[in-house]
Amino acid sequence: MLSIATKVERIVMDSPFLSEGLRRGLINLSELARQLQPQLESDLWKPVGQAAVVMALRRVSERLPDHAASDIVLAQKTGQLTARTDLVELTYRQSECTDECHRQLLAQAGRRRDLFLTVTRGVNEVMVICSRLLIPLVEEVFAGERQLARLENLNAVTLQLTAESHRTPGIYHAILKKLAWDKINLVNLISTHSELTLIIDKDQTGAAFAVLSKLVTH
After folding, report:
1. Which of these, 197, 206, 217, 214, lies nearest to 82 by C-alpha position?
2. What stretch of H or E contains 157?
3. What percentage of the chain exceeds 70 in pLDDT?
4. Are residues 196 and 108 in the same domain?
5. Which domain holds residue 185?
6. Cα distance from N-terminal residue to C-terminal residue, the chain
7. pLDDT of 122-180, one tens digit each?
8. Distance of CA 115 to CAs 33, 36, 47, 141, Å?
9. What is the distance between the alpha carbons of residues 124 and 92, in angstroms, rounded to a whole number?
């Protein structure tokens, strides 16, 4: 069974608002403990004292990094932040034909450098995110496959990171937390060695671009 301290830590770390508020000392620990008590007692199946919750919150806050935003290291060159518009995300169930579908798609669309295309294979699914102009080709290639989901009206924003960014603990968390603070929903993300591409709903792209632009000019 989880301890009070472990459960409190999970609640805090799962919420960018709580973790940031505690890190900055903006939250009254006693009041937060009072609000968390019902949830903790329900999850732990036992009475939970407010003092124990306050102590757990204090210990969590002491371990939070002092300057999370400074962990974001962007490449010092132009073109740090780019956007691609009018994208569609399609998800298919993996099958014995998935590899052949993937091969055909890249073979026929690979020459279109002006269009966006990425294919991600999971354990049981394969996801295609592409420019709308490529949809007829994707549907043709995957015609015999079972489609699980289709998301329309998406845009992509790509941040250029440094080549050493993979050595920075919590760098993705620091970026995504800033979006969460502004209630910007992240549909998906794609990462390579020094690029992080965020897939966002079309109607939230302007707000996301404004938030991320502050990182570029930081």
Report:
1. 197
2. strand 147-160
3. 90
4. yes
5. 81-216
6. 44
7. 999 999 999 999 999 999 999 999 999 999 999 999 988 888 777 777 778 778 888 88
8. 51, 48, 57, 17
9. 9
